[in-house]
Amino acid sequence: MNSILKILEEETEGTCYTSYRYCADAESLLPKIGYDDTQSVSVVKNRYGETDSTLKSTKNLRAFSEKIRFDEPLFKYFLDGSRRTYKIDDIEILRSIYPIMGGQIGVACCERLSQSKFKCAEFESSIVLSLPTIANPHGKNTEQFFNALTNKVNQAKRFKDGPLKVTKILSYSSTKQEEAKKYEDLGIATIQDEMIDCEKRIVAGLHHRNKINTQNYLIKDGSLQYKPMKSGDYRELTKFKNYFRSVIGVSKMFNPELFKDRSNKSNTDVIAKLGLYHRTPAYMYRSEIVGNVNFAIWYVRIRDPKHTESPFAGVVKIEKILITEEENEQGLDSAEVDLITANVINERNPVCYGSDSRWANHLYPVYLTESYIKSKYLSDMHFLNLF
Questions:
Q1: What span, in angstroms and rounded, lies between the C-alpha atoms of 180 and 171?
Q2: d(CA 300, CA 344)
Q3: Fewer Cβ atoms within 10 A, N terminus or C terminus of the chain?
Q4: Among 36, 40, 42, 55, which Cα is nearest to 285's?
């Protein structure tokens, strides 16, 4: 048996089974609908997401986006996080069998140097494992136990004599109240949380160094509706939301059914019928899982629908956290909503047509960032053979 699995057996007092190994994300290759946004958001009634309360229909930003096309772009930084997860083995502990999960995590921030030149400003990658909490035979000082186990794994010949290291061994719940869920999914969730914590850490660092500000915004790929986590440096969004003052989230794949008007009625048809370069009014939303944080959310069409394959292809969802008391009362300044939207429109070209099925919803700098992360991954075969 591989010495790393032997170390896990000895330290956890368990038994490994040398089970079939595979990439747990392989099912993502199958055609399916996946959304970037959460399913538990609701409109804040009697509030507007922007200061222009007279805006009842969509707004055409073609002229404004063309007017500022050659101005200094609002967006200077582009952030994306990615992870690949794997089933490494099964381990028997106290007569129950749990999966040993592994993951590669990559988070990158791309910086614009000029209209056509970009560089990687921040990049963090890590190799992690995830075991059940019951793997700690002592039953206490769990974090200390898994930190010590990480050090022992890295002393194995496979890692000691090479450039790769296991960054962290995470733990997922093995208590009875979680048994309704698949343990494999619980392990994957810990790897996802580790990636999200890295995203937040990079945003915090850019904020502290004043890299992101009112003249230099950051686009984060996907939703900003971070749910509270059980561990990590930035567990609750309410405690560090000021770091996101100059950050927007742009979702390529969103659930249109979540778009409601101020009467909480479906606005799905408004998104489907959006004209090119038109945006919807911004509405104020609150997420049930995020906590006491409000968001301004709106949609804009960046591709001509005659070139796309579905009513929502070519439309992106934009989110911004409402920070100040004034924003939470009156919504985001409509001039800022227009400026953000016009700059998003101007980020759409060139396209990645043919390279990505989501081409119509991609902003090219985000696509570059995502491609950079994936280029740094070990192959699935290489990763699985580490263990």
A1: 18
A2: 9
A3: N
A4: 42
Residues 181, 344: Cα–Cα separation, whole Å: 39
Q: How confident is the model at residue 28 (pLDDT cuts 50, 70, 90)?
A: very low
pLDDT of 178 above 70: no
Cis peptide bond N-terminal to 350, omega within 30: yes
* Contact assessment for residue 110 and residue 118, using Cβ atoms and an 8 Å cutoff: yes
What are the CA-CA distances from residue 48 to residues 98, 262, 295, 335, 373 (Å)?
Answer: 48, 8, 11, 14, 37
Q: What is the pLDDT of residue 357?
A: 75
Burial profile 241-270: b = 16 or more Cβ within 10 angstroms, e = fewer: bebbebbbbbbbebbbebbbebeeeebbeb
Q: Considering the chain, what percentage of its residues have pLDDT values greater than 70? A: 92
Quick one: average pLDDT of 101-127? Answer: 94
Rounded CA-CA distance 223/258 in Å is 13
**Interatomic CA distance for residues 1 and 357, integer angstroms:** 41
Q: Tokens for 320?
A: 């911004």
Determine the average pLDDT of the residues in 364-385: 94
- Whole-number average pLDDT of the chain: 88
Which residue stretches of 121-181 are H helix?
142-153, 157-160
- The Cα 11–Cα 14 span in angstroms is 8
Which structure tokens are listed for 215? 């003249």
Amino acid in the structure at residue 229? M
How many other C-beta atoms lie within 10 A of the C-beta of residue 14? 24
Q: Is the distance from CB of 90 to CB of 100 less than 8 angstroms?
A: yes
Instruction: Mention every residue, 6+ apart, whose C-beta is less than 8 A from residue 196.
Output: 81, 226, 229, 232
Average pLDDT over residues 57-80: 95
At 311, the pLDDT band (50, 70, 90 cuts) reads confident
